[in-house]
Amino acid sequence: MKTKPSIIGTGSTKFGERWEDGIREMVSHACVNALKSAGIEAKEVDSLFVANCFASSINGQSNLNALCSDELGIQNAVSIGGADAAGAYAMAQAANSIMSGQSKISLVLGVEKMSDLPITDITKITSEILEQDFEASTGATLAGLYAMITLRHMKEHGTTGKQLDMVSVKNHSNAVENGISQFKFKVTREDVAKSPMVADPIRVLHCAAPGDGCCAIVMCSEDISKRYKNKARIIGTGIGSDLMAVHEREDITRFNSVISASKNAFANAGIRLQDISFAEVHDSFSIGEIIAIEDIGFAKKGSGGRLIEEGHANIDGKIPINPSGGLKGCGHPFAATGIRQAIEAFMQLNKMAGKRQIKDPKYALTESIGGTGATAVVNIYSL
Amino acid sequence: MKTKPSIIGTGSTKFGERWEDGIREMVSHACVNALKSAGIEAKEVDSLFVANCFASSINGQSNLNALCSDELGIQNAVSIGGADAAGAYAMAQAANSIMSGQSKISLVLGVEKMSDLPITDITKITSEILEQDFEASTGATLAGLYAMITLRHMKEHGTTGKQLDMVSVKNHSNAVENGISQFKFKVTREDVAKSPMVADPIRVLHCAAPGDGCCAIVMCSEDISKRYKNKARIIGTGIGSDLMAVHEREDITRFNSVISASKNAFANAGIRLQDISFAEVHDSFSIGEIIAIEDIGFAKKGSGGRLIEEGHANIDGKIPINPSGGLKGCGHPFAATGIRQAIEAFMQLNKMAGKRQIKDPKYALTESIGGTGATAVVNIYSL
Fold first, then answer.
1. Which residue of A has its CA nearest to B369?
2. Which of A133, A374, B118, B319 falls 20 to 30 Å from B156 in CA-CA distance?
3. CA A306/CA A312 separation, integer angstroms
4. What gap in Å lies between CA A38 and CA A7, rounded to an integer?
């Protein structure tokens, strides 16, 4: 089998409204902790991959790799985008660098500082990841488009309001046990159903909140990983895309990007769907988790909601989904999210997840989305 | 020797103020031409690398890889940043993808659409690639900081106003023969010396103008390149960085990023400085070309200006610099520039450069800068 990269160290800020920190402070905190946990010094790092989405639009900073090089003293650094999938895209670039022999050790970080602007501005700025000519310019927002996707999914496949609510109930419950999560409290189905309407049928508690945070991982080559007891091997990566504008797609209840990324990741990994012990998926809106479950194949089209309603996606269920708390419970600093998912894979596989630990996981899967399903990255991990 | 990637096709829009085109139209034009020149169809492309700097800030588009995937029908696409070096950074990522075996054929594009805003806004937006806390927030601009670098270089090393002017005279003269250049007219030394002052001692004709444009190249693995007669092999790449804020550097007349990137590129390529037949360097301001000449090693520190004044950097000189016309003559759509330099290397090595053709070039070098020397990428090419 081909050489595969491994994760050997992780670090993260707590997610939330971090008024006391700028991008530099968050990057420094997450990266120092990631390097420390791997016992690696910055000078041993061959390459740095900096994932970010909105530093230009929100923070007026369009040279983030230079800033991170300066802050961390690592020369070979590049900026990677990809909307809210940027973190996962950066991991794929680091993997290429390691598999090509250009790097032995890479540091990968995802950072976002979104609370510097009021939420009305953030809604406008997050629309920058949509298609401009026919979507954003007409006033469409992420929530507005996801609302249409949700309604259509309810109509076509019978997905219920209760099922959508239960995504949030489960993820909030899981997030209580996650040290980095922003929303460390449980919600009931009634709380979700009574929360303020954002874009019918999406309510506040169906949405992942944008926020501040930085996650970092140390990735290395196969030979170096042999020195480590705690590690997660990235055995498969798939990247997919779809038509960018939602209205151009034939069927808006499935994300072709996810279907294609997932297929490629499994082909790459050489394992089967039923080998997966748990998954972290992109629940930026509750329907996103249901579509992920269906499009990856954990449930048939139209029965993703039932899987959740019946408890099979709980931590002790047959296929735990978002044991970390997901984007919903952890908060969603866009480019940090993909790396946060990888950190959860690392922690679960190495049985470091404390009270949210899944029993004896063998293989993990993470799924990250850019925009309203325009792009997707799927990673598969083993011990 | 290790497998190296090759460039086998190129495409470009003309640089300038392209009022009739958006990002989509420019991407489509450059990529279709690049694929056509290589005889490759989009479906044969394994990965797409999209370099850009200001689509978020200027065009309100923060998901450019999704947009390019949609436009070109290529699924595996990623967005790469790195300020005005973004194009060169994207090439390095494509090289990793090819050398790792993940891709056989990659398409790499750099695109920028900057003329949608007036120049006063552009000056503020280009400051986003500077350090924020101590530089941009105090009102420093790219031209302002380069003016300080220029003054210090004049004081420390005796570089003269005439030498700075001659950079512009040479590059304008070369640009006349380049089909894609924005400024297809010659200027005299007097024209430069009398042009309006921007930031003393930098005048308008010492500055590269921001603009619109897209460049694309097809890169492939060594085995595929064997089918091609016209190609340029990328035999060495080096990436370097320096402290981001100019005032923190010990000596502002040299760019440590360039020194380090150049050293790594030569080590990687296994050739010597004297093997290089010509170079494309980052003359965003005239002093940038002089510093590049010195820091790469074509002239000793302090004698870069003399090299130009004495005509040695002319197309028929001993080491031609910027035969394309450089950033000054071609125009400078930030992320397109790094790819444009690679296209010049391809054209010159394959003797396709028409009236600006250098006699029998064997090895080419390109140098791309992010910001005021915060980062640099150096590539070395052979036939």
1. A66
2. B319
3. 9
4. 9
